[in-house]
Amino acid sequence: METQVSILLVYERYGQRPITVARVDSTRLLLRAAETAIAEAEARAALLAEADNVLGEVESAEAKRLEKVLHFLLPELSTRRNCHPNTPF
Question: Around 45, how many Cα atoms within 13 Å sit in the side-chain half-sphere?
Answer without folding.
Answer: 16
